[in-house]
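Q: I have 986 residues here and want to know how they pack in 3D. Can you give me a structure?
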Amino acid sequence: MNITNQLSIRTRTYLLASLGVVASLILSFVSNDGLNMIRAELDSMMVATKIERYTNKLILEEQNYRLNANGSIYDLEVANQSYEKALQYIDDIYQTLDEVNEGGLPPSHIQQTRQSTNQYKALYLRAVSLLTNLNTQANTLAAEGEYITWQIQQYVESKRVEIKKDLTQKTIEKINNGSNIWQYTYVTRLHEKKYLLSPDEIILDDFIRDYAFMMSEWLRLKKMSDQSFELDKLNMFYVSAGKYEQAMLSWVDINQQLVVEVLPRMERLGNDVVVSAIYAARTSLEHMANKRNSIALIVSLVSVVAILLGLFFGIGIARSISSVITSFQEGLLDFFRYLNQEKKMARPIVVEGRDEIAVMAKVVNENILNVQHVLNRKIDYQQALLEWSRVNYQDDSLTIKKATELSARALHVERVSVWLFNDDQTKLSCVNLYLSQLRKHESGLVLNRDDCPKYFQAIQDRDILVIDNARDDVRSCELNEGHFKPFDIYSILTLPIVHDGQPLGIICYEKTGEVRHWESDEQEFARSVVNAISLSLEIKKRRLVQEELSAQKDKLHYYAHYDALTRLPNRVLFDDRLNQAIKQAQRHKTKVAVLFIDLDHFKGVNDSMGHKAGDQLLVEVARRLQGKIRQTDSIARLGGDEFTIILDQISDNDVVVEITQTLLKAMEEPIELFHQPFYITLSVGVAIYPDDGYSSEVLLKNADAAMYQAKDDGRNTYQFYTRLMTEKAFERIVMNASFRNALEKKEFIVHYQPQVDVRTGHFIGMEALVRWIHPDMGLLSPSKFLSFAEDTGLIIPMDHWVMTTAMTQFRIWYEEGLNPGVLALNVSMKQLQKEFFVEGIQQLLNDTGCQPQWIELEVTEGQVMENSDTLIQRLGEIKELGVGLAIDDFGTGYSSLSQLKRLPIDKLKIDQLFIHGLPDDDDDVVIVKTVISLAQNMGLAVIAEGVETEQQKEFLLQHDCYCMQGYLYSLPVPAADLEALLRDRR
């Protein structure tokens, strides 16, 4: 062992000084001069050592600043801390340079070091300014990016609401353009975030291209917009988008200045300062080495003993100092090559002994190792982020898989896992676990809150959970037996995955085999991984929203053009196809026929069998019609029971007649509904282009008029359009408006026709009959408007008004003691089939104060027989109210005795059609006698209506029919006239 290596420099210096003292006893002058020389050189060496120490610290902080200011990760806080420390070390270097100046080192070296240090400091200030601007632009990007996304989202949502109220093609196109802009706001922001993570020209080009496309879509949308609030929203979007683009371009320019102009110069100047400091230290040490021989010569002159001792100690000290300086110099140069990326690894400085230089070398070695570890980690992070920037973020499963692989490699951990919460956040399920040593992925592990409540609480209370010793930490020790010990886990780093402010899950990094300390830069890298996963989940959500919007758009397009029940084109698509057919006919000089089809008596099926049966009937009719037309023809359902057909490229009307007859024949076969056959017929109106009109609107209107003419002709037929039909259609429209106006203005009046017991001459009741006091045509009988009211459904409000008026009048007459008998009210089939008709009768009785025994409801024989099964229960419920029931117009239908006896009726009314021929018409005689006999045998009352002559009266009396109604006794008269009759008879 070299003894001198175990001595400190101070000890060695004192030893040499002692030798000098001994020599000074012999030659004090020579001795004093030698001691002064030694002291001066030792001071220079100590100053050089301080310069080296401060320089190393400055280099370390400069590298730390550069690592946090350059690349894809910017940490302003850490960079500013390094900046403050570097300024302090620069001040220390200034002070040390002053000491060196006083010590007599070369002024050129001192001046060069000062100049480089000043420039280095100026660049530091510029870098801080650029970093501040970068963060400002990044914040602007985030704010304006969110704002333009929110603006276009609000625009699209407003259009969705609008389309529910008013479905138009223009609104759909607005939604399409708005959706494209919405999608490309996310695509553009994705390019922005990728570029901020890893600046690349390709990513910037993608950003510029997609931004330009987004603004071109904006321009298209603006041209379509015709409402002020839409233009306001689009203008606000344009302003925000401009700010967004300007912020992105500013960020690129500032980053370019920082990377190209500032950081490389800082690196060069830092190296200059280091080289200058090393040169000054090396110069000082060289001066000491140069004086070594002089000191030895002086000592040799003092005494032979001093020479011998000096040789022994001086050579040892010189060698040790020289080796230390050489080792120190080589170690620092090797470290600088590593910093300049000329070498992949820096070797430590090898210094033996326990002196001050050895201690300093140990500290420097520790700093070198720390810097090397930090640099290696930063390189790993950058490589991982660079590879990550190429991942398709729209594939969340691939993003999570790559996240676990790349972060495991960058953080050097054995296990990385991603866990997702269930809906109530009581369970975590592992969707991906990467085992780096085995290089494989697993899933399926589950953590329940009940098993580890403290751990769940910890990860939900903070944004990051750092646990170096997981087995002893109170927050995680619950997992020891079930998780940590079986998998040899000692340290964990857990971060929550948050989306829209809500925790979705966690990502967990686990170190096995030993306890590990998690560095701050490792935690920041882990945050970057979480942000990328959150972004991927957000992109997935937006993609799902976009897919749903696209599906809704397709669905809206379908329902905007097709009938949901029959799958046939609707009115919108029909109009478009008809317009196209007309244009084609214009070019080729051909004709187009429009068939307007309406189902005969469809309302009866719908009312008697229900809407479900009606829908089935419509579907079957649509199928049959579609199967009978040509491939070039088009069929559509306009609504209800109305269909239209376009016969394209026809040469003459014979083709139209042939196809129309085929359609009518297709309905001859019965349609089975609920195991019961139904026969349905068609009324068809035909309009021809160009004979009957030049536009789709006119052709459809004229075909509709022709269809109504077909109905007037008895139904189950077709009619070609004539001008007279337009007049009838207009009359029908006028009638509709007049009838509704009459209901509103109460132009209807109730007349009453007495029913008489001929034996006593007393009134036994009266039938309420409606009349219309038309402002232009005067008093109209029911024959003028009842069929129209029945077809349009307006008979329901009219009948309700008649019942209310008549029942109120009867209650008044009974209160006045006039005893008008029974009030006979005619009930239409539409009223009987109303769901709450019985309840409505009860409500009328309550509202008018009329007693149920005063009321008799009349239904026609045809109504009852066609719907006997469905009406028996309804009539029974009416009977339970105490209201009487009568069959009107009996004998005109085809009643079945088996059906008749099941009906809860009280009376039969012989239709006036059979009374009119009495007593001369043999057929009428037989029918009337049969009805009277049938009523008597069934225990029913019988009344004859339409009695006008004494001969008719006598015949009825001879055959035991005593109740009569007709002009022989009274015309239908207003309530006031009838009241006068009642008072006279009283």
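Q: Anything worth noting?
A: The chain has a mean pLDDT of 79. Residues 572-721 form a domain with the Alpha-Beta Plaits fold (CATH 3.30.70.270).
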